[in-house]
Amino acid sequence: MMLAALGLAALTLSAPSVAQAQTQTHSLVGPQSTASVPLVPGTGSPGATIITPTPLGPPAAPMVPPTAQTLPAVPAGRVALAVTARYGRDAAAISGGLIWRVYAAKPDATGLFPLIKEDRSATPTFVLPPGSYVVHASLGLASAAKSVQLRSDAVREVLDIPAGGVRLEGRVGDVRIPPGQIVFDIFKGSQFDTRQQRRPIAQNVMTGDVVLLPEGTYNIVSNYGEGNSVVRSDVHVDAAKLTDVVVTHRAAVITLKLVNNSGGEALANTQWTVLTPGGDIIKESIGAFPRLVLAEGDYHVIARNEGRSFQRDFKVITGVDGEVEVSTR
């Protein structure tokens, strides 16, 4: 499997945005250890950027020289093109997760390059008529391309794709945030780079999903719940490494209730507005028991019911979930 060829790194990030990180890396070709974070299949759908995690397998095989690749029988008037990919110069072969495409070297009348063939095996061999082509290989969001000229003899090409992976999860203290309650957006570059691309390259990534990226620095924006618990963290992705990222949120789950008496039944059809002490609106909702995630701090809440308004201040402490009652008296 593809992940069997990735080394493993463990990284923990916590608020504030600039966090101390502890990393641990394992040799790419040495014995693989079990991942410290449970391998939970992801439920997100950011398209081709996501590959469902699988248990790490045996050590990755050394790079097989292209000349050792067995070529199929080639009919007259055709030429064999054998291709392989690796994580970089002198690095291990990529053993899975690849999408190979062969395009014509010249665009058609519409300006598009016609797709000639596609293959999803690790080391395919394409049998093509002589001519000029462009070979493209993608691994998640990382890719490489090369122009090739086929004449009469078989051609063997190796493409370098310096890619790595990140696997994400969130915690409050030592407690893991359940999947489905936290999502991650990934941006290229550091959060401190003013030239940073503002459009995410992967969006709504779920806990346990693996995102395959070109080697480099990325800004991960973690949203816990639908309130204001947002953590921004920078992480570096290394080629041929899988990095587990744990983002720590300083937040709690709060349930709001409008009651006539302390501990009494919540009043239905209540309109709620949660604000910061400065008056900025954090969340608005309607219902008897609105449940929301709020970052640690001080808040002001206003409850409206049957034309009357009631309000109070309250404090959120990290990891202390609970109810906030607003009294009509």
Short description:
The chain has strands at residues 7-14, 50-51, 79-86, 99-104, 115-119, 125-128, 131-139, 142-150, 155-160, 163-172, 175-176, 182-188, 202-205, 210-214, 216-224, 229-237, 241-248, 251-259, 271-275, 281-286, 291-295, 297-305, 308-316, 322-327. By secondary structure, the chain is mainly beta. The strands form six sheets. Strands 1, 2, 10, 11, 14 and 17 form a six-stranded mixed β-sheet that branches. A four-stranded antiparallel β-sheet has the order 5-4-7-8, with no helix packed on it. Strands 13-12-15-16 form a four-stranded antiparallel β-sheet, with no helix packed on it.
Structure report:
Strand 7 and strand 8 (142-150) form a beta hairpin. The chain folds into three domains: 2-56 and 163-248, Sandwich (Immunoglobulin-like); 66-160, Sandwich (Immunoglobulin-like); 251-327, Immunoglobulin-like. The protein contains no helices and 24 strands. Strands 1, 2, 10, 11, 14 and 17 form a six-stranded mixed sheet that branches. By secondary structure, the protein is mostly beta strands. The protein is 0% helix and 49% strand. It has strands spanning 7-14, 50-51, 79-86, 99-104, 115-119, 125-128, 131-139, 142-150, 155-160, 163-172, 175-176, 182-188, 202-205, 210-214, 216-224, 229-237, 241-248, 251-259, 271-275, 281-286, 291-295, 297-305, 308-316, 322-327.
